[in-house]
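INSTRUCTION: Work out how this chain folds

Fields: amino acid sequence; protein backbone structure tokens

Chain under study, with its fold:
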Amino acid sequence: MVVQDRRGGAVAAAVACGTGLLAGLLATGCSPEGAAADDQAAPKRAAAAVDLRRSAEALVRAGTAKVRTAMETVSGGTLVAIRGTGGYDFAAASGQLRVVLPDLKGKPGGGHQPITEILAPGALFMKNRGAGVPVDKWVRVDTAALSDGNLVTGGATDPLAAAELLRGAREVTFQGEERLGGVVVRHYRGTTDLAAAAGRASARTRPALVAAEKGFTTVVVPFDAYLDDAGRLRKVRERFRFANGAPAGAAVTSTTVLYGFGTEVAVRLPDRRDIFTGKIASASS
């Protein structure tokens, strides 16, 4: 469902180096000093990629955090945005979000009532789901059975999965320091490889990333990530493209913001008797 934000580097100058007419104009780019700068930059890029791959571990050490999420889809010039707020326990790989859907039908007073989502290892629980589900019942979804591993299906990316996805980080560039929520963070940009991330992910997240690896058009996911001095992920924006079930040209961007580390987060999974087992109506019914 997503148009990727790729930016290629100029490579033609390398071909012109030493060919005479353009050699003088391109001397700076072909000089030993330029090569030395590249040699110095490579270890920094590698170190940045390592920091990003370890950010999930830093979050587990932090324990808990407050969460803000945004899922934006652009198709045919139309922007649809889904917002979420809540908390997440990284040690338990569980969290709870209040997800607000957009008003697509122009109903007075807004659109669909907010959905409560509980994120848990291997499962997504949704309350106030609509589609014929009683308001006091939960719907349980096996995330490994979803074509995207629930990276975008639920309208919010599981924060731990968003961080684990960076375990496949590559082509990382440092964009500079910024302030985010009053905290100085390091901004990195690059791509991550879904297959590599799935291979390096923790046992809790691996099934979802393996499913996503099969469900997306490409395993390459562009991202912008922001780390604090403790190596914790403060913000990550990831852009996806689906293989099936999405309008041509649709772009989906998932943003996760983490703050308030150490905040108490209590997540209680629904009782079995409260889970809806009937038929869920389709969007067209």
Remarks:
- Residues 47-274 form a domain with the outer membrane lipoprotein receptor (LolB), chain A fold (CATH 2.50.20.20).
- The two ends are 23 Å apart (CA to CA).
